[in-house]
Amino acid sequence: MNVTSADFDPMETLLHILELSDAGGALTDEDIFVGPGDANAPRPRLFGGQVLAQSLVAAAKTVGPDRLVHSMHGYFLRPGDAANAITFGVQRLRDGRSFSARRTHAYQNGTPILSLIASFQVPDTGIEHQEPMPAGIPAPETLPTSAELLGGINHPVAQAWAYERPFDIRHVGDNIYFDVKGEHVAHQAIWLKTLGPMPEDQNLHRAALAYASDYTLLEPSLRRHGISWATPGLSVASLDHAMWWHRPLQVDEWLLYVAESPSTSGARGLNLGRFYNRDGELVASVAQEGMMRLPEGTPGID
């Protein structure tokens, strides 16, 4: 049963979240912007992908329209509160002939919750190569949606993942929502796209992809050890996030998100991801280390 309000529109929420105000033109040694929290979040903690995306939008507002974000490196410093607005301070570190560098701090209650540096570039040409897209991946239209898998579960988180995410997310093969079926491997693939059309702004598409990249990136570490999201006592939090955009992309069209975990140790899992469009072009890459803890003596975990 879908217990989500009938008038809730996840795409409208995403576009609202990414529409920052300029705080009435307030300036310190930074450009100041303000963005909303997420009143519909199923948990009090603010989703990390949202803060990443908003920080990139804030930084993009301080560069010329000819400059696109090509890389960012961020650290999550404190948990954010989903019920409260976020203030973004952008420092203009450098503007060169082709590149601009910006540092964004995201604040709640005057305290930084995320620190991020992003680089923007005027589009240019040069030598090219890429890692090829994996072969034999089934089309997204043949795979079940999150709503089909989770919509019948009367639980706030299940309902939020089924109906309140602004992205259509479809796992290639088995998901790890409730259990880990088959071989416990440290890799996976999903298809994703926004539920509706996005504005043409390429920086907004890239920020939205940063938002979505945080949904499932830690799953290869969990999958490798037979840990599902429903494992009792599981505690997971993103520690840092790095991303590179290689080519123009449309986040409102299907993208294949391939991820793997080369190492997990010390209650931290490192996970790497690549995004391909349906033409097989590698459009972005991502890396994240996350904290993952289980209660001592948890049975049945590899």
UniProtKB/TrEMBL annotation:
Belongs to the C/M/P thioester hydrolase family. It comes from Arthrobacter alpinus. Residues 179-291 form the Acyl-CoA thioesterase 2 C-terminal domain. Residues 41-121 form the Acyl-CoA thioesterase-like N-terminal HotDog domain. It holds the Pfam family Acyl_CoA_thio. GO terms for molecular function: fatty acyl-CoA hydrolase activity. GO terms for biological process: acyl-CoA metabolic process; fatty acid catabolic process. Signal peptide: none annotated. This is Acyl-CoA thioesterase 2. InterPro entries: Acyl-CoA_hotdog, Acyl_CoA_thio, HotDog_dom_sf, TesB_ACOT8-like_N, TesB_C. PANTHER family: ACYL-COA THIOESTERASE (PTHR11066), ACYL-COENZYME A THIOESTERASE 8 (PTHR11066:SF34). It catalyses: a fatty acyl-CoA + H2O = a fatty acid + CoA + H(+). Keywords: Hydrolase, Lipid metabolism. CDD domains: Thioesterase_II_repeat1, Thioesterase_II_repeat2. Homotetramer.
